[in-house]
Amino acid sequence: MPTRAEAWELLCEYTKGDSLRKHALAVEAAMRASATRYNDGPADVDEWGIVGLLHDFDYEMFPSADQHPFTGSNILCGRGYPERIIRAILGHATYTGVPRDTDMARALFATDELCGFLVACALVRPRRSLDDLEVSSVKKKLKDKAFARSVNRDDIRQGVEELGVNLDEHVRFVIDALRPVQCEIGLSQGVALGS
What we know:
Blueprint: H1 4-14, H2 18-37, H3 45-54, H4 70-78, H5 83-91, H6 103-123, H7 135-143, H8 153-163, H9 167-178
């Protein structure tokens, strides 16, 4: 199993754009948190994090539906990544036909689009931070089809259903998972009250 450092190198080899790298870091953080919350058995937090980090690593170079994530999966196979990681990554794209039949695959699908949406929500707030972002605000923005229109709301809803959790609970969970990495994903770090 390649290390997290090797996964980061692979991401940087294929993804030059800052925004897609930041998205990868966000999904990695959400998946690390998900490893202990949404896994029925003992979870390898690093493995779940690597799935989040690499789920879109091929997208910048191979963005079409006939290439992504298929090309990336072939690259991962050649680099020694286990089948369970490759299948989870394949499953995050609904058009691949690969079933999300593991906790890891379901968690990736449920966090991917939501991470992008939460970052978009934070960026339009005065503090550009997740610190004061409320679930009710996120749900209101989800209803606004003009806001972050590239985010697939159906995938967010389907992901929550597949995980078998409440939307409000999952949104709160992912916000909390992203707060520690706010600076790394392009948001402002919150300032403690009274500082």
